[in-house]
Amino acid sequence: PSDSCDPAPDEFFVSQETLKTYYKPLYKNKVRVFSRKGKVIENHMIAKFISFDQMKEESKIGWQKLVAFLLHRQNFVTEVSKDNAALISGKMCAKGWRKAMVAEEIVGRYVNQAKLLRQMKEMNFNFEDEAEGFEFIGCFLSEQFRNVAPGSHQSCKEYLQQQSIPSITQVNHTSNTTYFPDDFCSAITYTMDDFSNKAHRDRDTDNWTLIGFIPIKKGGLIAEDGFDVEGGEFVIRDLKVFIDFSKVNGVVLVILKTSKFVHQTISSRSKSGFYTRFGFSCQISRKMSHSIEKYMNGEYEGNNYTFGTYDLYANKAKEIIKTKKKISKK
Which of 187, 164, 149 is nearest to 282 (CA)? Predict the structure, then answer.
């Protein structure tokens, strides 16, 4: 839209009255939001609504596996702190790759090493399962993205692979690591438990982001019936559109340049307390991208730098376990 702007910039959460008056609700089929200047069309956003009634059983199983895998990963990661600039309520976690926060690491995986150590001691961590799981979710999400917006998917895929940025499917990474053909993102954040955040722009690369929303029961099963979460609208304030979940019974996919347009998730609640909306966002971190660029330009040569891979973290944990066993025997 040519008149895109935030109609109520002073509202912390966009009010229901403002949504009804100024915003267009999106809730069915496939919707494209764009602007036109003469003969030039610029795409801003694509939304796809996939109802459970029309969804193939194979896809339902895929979404269920995605949710189950990511929920279980909470055992190995630290929740994003409420000190995060945008987070207001609910829970947010992240998996994949980021700029390293450990000395002598260039980039690393989202891993809480204390939690990983505990899971390994309790025999709850299996490296092969972890690798297979990330391969699955990376390939599954890539297929969904490509089906909805092939051009945007191709753009993300080319950027990731041409810049030698680690893919979420890779639990280990070196400059010689091969990609799966459709690898397109380096990390995934996921949210639940009445998640909401401030209006913001992301700090990721200036490319497309795949965003998704799945209704689930608190235990993690997909909720095809009985879902009673109210609110939680996903609002793109600059474009004056929002996802109206009250009219959706299924999975919602959004493709958006989140570093360009101000967006937010409004607060929500489950009337029974038994349900939550599971959200996810696939991205490429700008900071990590810059670190990889420096690495490829040889700026880390001659120094003892490494990639923070699962092999590295698992080996560190194994050494700690061995050391503690030796001490306990003395």
Answer: 187
Fold of 44-226+248-329: Jelly Rolls (2.60.120)
**What does the alpha-carbon distance between residue 102 and residue 94 come to, in Å, rounded to a whole number?**
17
Per-residue model confidence as pLDDT tens digits over 209-232: 999 999 999 999 999 999 999 999
Q: Which residues pair with 92 in a beta bridge?
A: 191
Residue 330 CA to residue 16 CA, distance in Å, equals 66
CB atoms closer than 10 angstroms to residue 183: 21
327 contact partners, CB below 8 Å, separation of at least 6? none
Domain segments of the chain as ranges: 44-226+248-329
- Cα(277)–Cα(296) distance, rounded to whole angstroms? 40
Which three-class secondary structure string do you get for 139-207? HHHHHHHHHHCHHHHHHHHHHHHHCCCCCCCCCCCCCCCCCCCCCCCCEEEEEEEEEEECCECCCECCC
The model scores a pTM over 0.85: yes
- Distance spanning both ends of the chain, measured CA to CA: 73
3-state helix, strand, coil in the chain (%, to 5): 30, 30, 40
CA distance 150 to 298: 34
